[in-house]
Amino acid sequence: MQTTRRQAIVLASAGIGTIASPSLIPYGFAQSSSANWPHKSIRFVVPFAPGGTSEIVARSVAVELGKQLGQAVYIENKGGGGGVPAMLDVAHAPPDGYTLILGNVGSLAVNPFIYPNSGYDVNKDFAPVTLLAKVPNVFVIHPDVPAKNLVEFVAYVKKNPGKFNYGSAGNASAGHLSMEYLKLVTGMFITHIPYRGTGPQLTDLLAGRTQASSAGLPALSAHIKSGKLRAIAVGTQQRIPALPDVPTVAESGPALGLGKSIAHFETSQWYGIMVPTGTPKDIINRLQEESLKALKASSVTERFANDNAVSGGMPSEEFGKFIASEQRIWKDIVTRAKIRPD
Fold this sequence. Notes:
By secondary structure, this protein is of the alpha/beta class. Helix content is 41%, strand content 18%. The protein has two domains: 5-134 and 270-337, Bordetella uptake gene, domain 1 (D-Maltodextrin-Binding Protein, domain 2); 136-262, 3-Layer(aba) Sandwich (D-Maltodextrin-Binding Protein, domain 2), CATH 3.40.190.10.
């Protein structure tokens, strides 16, 4: 049986077998160790269009990583398809530390249950590096909607079923999931319109072509401050400093007549770095260490503080356990809310 180039790299990185000639392996295992990594630029794939929280997190960290590593870490936006095309791209990339992808709650914890035939296995074809950030989800509406808070919005939607649309950055994006979760617990009906990123969906929301959305605070903050969007709830368990007067979804439970059934409602966006399986462990460890260092840089801490984001930096093993726990949570929500690809 002929051993493929990727299998040879994986075996060699595990200390099994040898590579007879580096010329047989275009990317060469000789280049796949932290001793001489990186010697060229690194591609950091973001599975959404520009303009959203995902790119803000990725770009903030990428700039610092580039400084620390002495090589450019460039962002490649690859939106659409619920993140599946981007994940497929990286799953098939050489496992040499030169291709990273920004994983999130959608691509890592939800896609396995709504895209069972995606062509890749999140848990087998990717290796976790580290969690970068958790970002509060904020629920917003266009100011023309006659509602000042979540309670009024739910009541208005229920009186006008089927008349409202909400946009998201795409199927299985954090905004899609949080809004479907909210629909599940409140019993309201509002149609999902998927876009190829937060930026495009906000364009239509600001123009009044859609009426609501849920997204990370970084992408929404300026529009909330200007009055172009109205924040009606946050998805965290506690109110956030940037929006002290905006209640949590859980707080609104009693007024919605839901009581304890909504008391533990929590949804946030989280983002982390993944690499193709087979990437040498020493490179994964180096990436994790450099990412933690980048997250402590003043440019990143200040940006995250402004956006009420909680930085990560955990070891790869802990990030793997975190992903597994999120998969258990969202598998239940996907099943109950009957979330399907649109």
